[in-house]
Amino acid sequence: MDRREAILRELNLYPLWVRRDQTASTAGDPRPAEALAESVAPIAAELAAYDVPADIDTSSAVPNTMLDGLDWPELKQRVYDCTACRLRAGCTQTVFGVGDENADWLFVGEGPGADEDALGEPFVGQAGKLLDNMLLAIRLKRGNNVYIANIVKCRPPGNRTPADEEIATCFPYLQRQIELIKPRLIVALGRVASNALLGRDVTLASLRGKVHDYHGIPVIVTYHPAYLLRSPAEKAKAWQDLCLAVNKMQETGKSA
Length: 256
Ligand code: URA
Hints:
Uracil-DNA Glycosylase, subunit E, 10% strand, binds uracil
């Protein structure tokens, strides 16, 4: 089995994508259900805590303004020092973003989870492993022409969904990151990232399958890897989204 095939198997795509008229050696060999359930259990447990209400004092919040013109070190410092919303008081550290600062590809998630909060890097837990495999499936690698960031830079308590005002407060940091990176394409991971980037409040399903726009940069939306861990059958649709992204990137001039 070559590496690409191994990755597609990990994405649970292989049996789904075998043509009916072919008898590929990989057909009919999905991962055992128990193994899948085992790998999904911690994520499911974490997601169950999503609606824990925030109970952090916001009275000392310092506004987050005037990011125009900041360079990378200045922007990193501003994020590091940020107390613009209540999330900072409840997390271990800010999680700025990681990767190639001149990347063509920008992947945007929702916000740090427990692993990211501990390590200070986006997508390093189970969902991150799947994201890395999604990247490899389209011949990309974390850090190599790829930048990964989140909508909010601090872990929401109990991994709840960030509140609208927390997203609004943190979004300027991502805006400045995008201005500095100048990516040729953005992949939004999940409903929160998609709606925040596109200024919408709609379902992910209504956004999938189209090329959207963020200040002239094409945006493709797809499922959040944490959701894909819980709903592996949707990985086939995520693969379609990634193919759309690759096609769009190729259209814009350079191959992926
Ligand atoms: N989920 C996200 O949206 N971002 C991370 O960095 C990790 C998990």
